[in-house]
Structures are given as C-alpha cells and as structure tokens.
C-alpha cells in the first residue's frame, strides 16, 4: 500500500500505526529512504508517499503464538513476522557458538511488484512453532528472477556470530584469577551478548592472555578447553558454557521405525599414537619451568605423535589429564553416524536437540549403542520435514573428571573379572564379566 504522510508523522509513528511495531520503521526506511527528501526518518514532509509492502502488513497480523501449526517456520524481522517459506534449513552444532538458518521463497510475478521488506543486518528471530531456534541478525539477502517468478533467499546466524567473526580487542589483554564464565562475559560484553553456564566451572583461571588477532570465540573456547568444557550457542542468542551428554533424548533412533536414512563412518585420520602437551609452570620469581604430559592411544598401531601447547599454566596433573582428554576425545569422534528422521519433533512434541544422548539401532548399519547428538539440522523441501543429525560417541567431549570416573569403573570391572576367575563363582558369570570388560575396551578404543 501507499501511505500519504500527514503533518507531524514520523516513520516510527507510521510503523506503529500500520504495523503495530515501531521497530519495523527500519525496514520502511530502507525501502523509502531515496524518496524521503529530508534524509531523516523522523522529519517527513506532509504529502510524501511511503511504500508499505503488503508482506509487512500481512506479517503484522500473523500470530505465531496462536498458530495451530507447531511446525510453522516464522522469521520475525524487526517485529514483523513472515511465514510461508518453501525451503528451510536451520542448523545447530555443539562445536559452533552460533545457530544458522537459510530460507527460500518464490512467488509468481504480480501486476505490481513490491520491494522485499527484509534486509541484511536486520534483527531476526527464527521460530519453529513455539520454539525459538535463532536470535540474531540477517547476514545476507539474495534476490533472483526468471521468466515466471521472482525469489528471495534469507540467511543469518545467532547474535553470537559476532564472537566468531570479530577479534578480541580488550586492552590490556591479560586477565588474572578470573572464573571462566566471568572471563567469557568480559570478552562478550562489548557485543551485548550474555554468557550463561549450567555447570560448575571450577577454580578461577590464574592467568589468561589473549593472542594477537585472536577471535573472541577462539579465546573463550581456548579457556574452556583447559576446564574440559564446551562453548556453544545458548537460548535467545546467548553463549552457553556446558558439559556434554548430561541429558537424554525422549525417542530412540531405530531402523524400521523413524530412521529414514543413515551412514556410519570410522576414520583414523585425526587420531594419533602419542599426545604430548607442553606448558610452562611458575618458578621462583619470574622463572618458568618447561613441563610436558603425555598419553598413549593404544588404538593407533603406528607412530603418529601430536604436540599440543597447554592453554594455561602447567601442572603435572593438568598436562597428563589434558593429553588424555585429547586422545579420548579424538578417538570418540573417529566414529560418526549421520542419520535422517522424518519430522522435526519427538513423540512427546519436543524438538530434536543437540547435546542429548540417544540410543540408535540399525542392523544394516551394524550399530546398536548410545550416541551423542553433536549437530542437528531441520530441513523443509519437496521431501517434507526432515531432521538430519550427526552423532558421535558420548565421550567425545567428556571432561577430565568424567574420564577419571570411567577409568575407575574399568578398574572395578577388571578387578571383578579377576576375582570371579579365582573360583567359587558361576563360570557363566565369569564369562559375562570378561565379555563386558572386553566390550568396554572395544567401545572406547
């Protein structure tokens, strides 16, 4: 529609009156700026014409909250909601700190072609029904035409994308005795991003220094590794510091039921025989002592060493634990299952979520075990609604504390098997104990 400016009108007021949201004025400004003589959205001349696209008017009247479709994908851009997307991809991963989205829409040519009301750098929220998956900014808008239609692709990421893209400019760049979450908040604060944690992050970090040109997320992740924690995207565009696999999915993934397609890959490319972590310990005065910790991966037969620089001041226990964590994490990530299930939600209505342990069973893929959802991607296409997941072993991101607990359990199983073999116990129980122990070794190495 075309709105004729009245005396005293501002673009904020027009957006609020016609669209119910003053924040929509930024989109109106992008569309109409060349026609506003004053060059100021707050100083409009009576009689000027303001283009208000019909898509914005329809979007202002939609209601995500009352929608009967729990799987409708809605982009909320500057307070206006847009639905009806024909192609959708929304992705979240444990290994990245920013969820992302791509949506497409194609329309037949109309007699009057209106400008698209979505622009790069616009604030955006992406919903699937009542679930908020992305809260950030539009990265890019691509327009296309052919003989019969015109189309638009919109892509964007969580607010935390700025932490991935941008350098840490804090000066001075050295921090003393800071808790991990406090250090992360200091680095994220210039971007207006909140840091949350659902775990005890342990003792303060004695000393942490930014590296030249280091990105914000790289710095936070480096500090988190020293605590055996992971950094990923949280709710509402926040940054979450957490541990892996503390919760379970509602449904299993089962061949013949909800498993539509899948593959299992095992690769030793990123595994090494010897992990060597080197660091500096504090000596007297300003003196430092070079130290190293090592760990041997018994699952790698040939000599393949990997050197790692310690992320914090070194102690013998930290270096050895860090080397073991790296070895176990890489061994766990060497086995990857990629699966596709129909629909975006589990049987109880909850959406599939990363960082959940899920049982997977498929005779054709030769797999029957529990794995961790490391990545999830929701897709809408001509094939319908599909969820693609990347699964890894649950100990792929295990903390040092968890690894020590596993070692203790292994020792107890070994002790039990040895005691049983000494006599006085049912031979069948002996066989079961030994089989259980051998199977645990296969799973871990």
| Second rung of CATH, namely the architecture of the largest domain | Roll
Strand content: 35-45%
Radius of gyration: 27 Å
Task: Please name the fourth-level CATH homologous superfamily of the largest domain.
Answer: Baseplate protein-like domain - beta roll fold
Main pleated sheet: 14 strands, mixed
The termini sit apart by 66 Å
- Counting helices, strands and paired strands, the structural category is alpha+beta
- Domain count: the total is 5
Q: How much helicity do the residues have? A: 10-25%
Shape: globular
Q: Stretches where pLDDT falls below 50 for ≥5 residues?
A: 63-67, 417-425
CATH class type of the largest domain = Mainly Beta
Q: At the third CATH level, what is the topology name of the largest domain?
A: Phage tail proteins - horseshoe like beta roll fold
Give the strand tally: 24
Molecular structure report:
The chain has 445 residues and is α+β, with helices and mostly antiparallel strands. It has five domains: 52 residues, Membrane-bound Lytic Murein Transglycosylase D, Chain A, CATH 3.10.350; 80 residues, 3-Layer(bab) Sandwich (Phage tail protein beta-alpha-beta fold), CATH 3.55.50; 85 residues, Baseplate protein-like domain - beta roll fold (Phage tail proteins - horseshoe like beta roll fold); 60 residues, Phage tail proteins - 2 layer sandwich fold (2-Layer Sandwich); 42 residues. The chain is built from nine helices and 24 strands. Strands 3, 4, 5, 6, 7, 8, 9, 15, 16, 17, 21, 22, 23 and 24 form a 14-stranded mixed sheet that branches. It is globular and about 80 Å long. About 3% of the residues have low confidence.
């Amino acid at each position: 529609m075309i709105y004729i400016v009245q005396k005293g009108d501002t673009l904020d007021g027009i957006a609020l009156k016609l669209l119910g949201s003053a924040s929509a004025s930024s989109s109106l400004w992008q569309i109409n700026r060349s026609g506003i003589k004053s060059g100021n959205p707050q100083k409009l001349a009576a009689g000027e014409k303001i283009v208000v696209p019909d898509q914005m008017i329809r979007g202002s009247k939609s209601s995500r909250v009352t929608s009967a479709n729990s799987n409708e994908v809605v982009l909320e851009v500057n307070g206006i909601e847009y639905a009806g997307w024909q192609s959708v991809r929304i992705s979240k991963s444990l290994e990245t700190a920013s969820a992302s989205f791509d949506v497409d829409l194609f329309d037949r040519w109309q007699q009057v072609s209106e400008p698209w009301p979505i622009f790069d750098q616009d604030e955006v929220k992406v919903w699937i029904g009542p679930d908020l998956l992305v809260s950030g900014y539009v990265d890019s808008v691509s327009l296309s035409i052919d003989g019969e239609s015109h189309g638009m692709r919109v892509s964007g990421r969580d607010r935390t994308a700025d932490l991935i893209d941008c350098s840490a400019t804090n000066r001075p760049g050295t921090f003393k005795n800071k808790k991990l979450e406090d250090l992360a908040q200091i680095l994220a604060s210039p971007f207006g991003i909140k840091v949350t944690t659902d775990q005890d992050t342990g003792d303060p970090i004695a000393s942490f220094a930014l590296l030249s040109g280091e990105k914000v997320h790289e710095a936070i992740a480096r500090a988190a590794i020293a605590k055996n924690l992971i950094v990923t995207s949280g709710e509402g565009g926040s940054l979450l510091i957490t541990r892996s696999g503390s919760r379970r999915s509602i449904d299993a993934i089962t061949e013949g039921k909800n498993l539509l397609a899948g593959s299992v890959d095992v690769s030793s490319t990123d595994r090494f025989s010897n992990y060597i972590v080197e660091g500096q310990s504090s000596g007297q005065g300003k003196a430092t002592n070079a130290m190293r910790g090592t760990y041997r991966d018994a699952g790698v037969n040939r000599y393949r060493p990997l050197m790692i620089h310690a992320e914090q001041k070194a102690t013998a226990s930290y270096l050895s634990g860090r080397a073991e964590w790296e070895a176990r994490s890489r061994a766990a990530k060497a086995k990857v299952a990629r699966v596709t299930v129909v629909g975006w939600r589990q049987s109880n209505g909850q959406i599939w979520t990363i960082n959940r342990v899920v049982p997977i069973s498929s005779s054709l893929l030769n797999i029957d075990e529990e794995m961790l959802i490391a990545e999830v991607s929701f897709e809408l296409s001509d094939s319908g609604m599909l969820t693609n997941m990347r699964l890894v072993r649950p100990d792929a991101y295990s903390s040092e504390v968890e690894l020590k607990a596993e070692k203790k359990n292994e020792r107890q199983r070994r002790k039990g098997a040895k005691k049983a073999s000494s006599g006085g116990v049912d031979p069948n129980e002996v066989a079961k104990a030994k089989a259980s122990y051998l199977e645990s070794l296969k799973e871990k190495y």
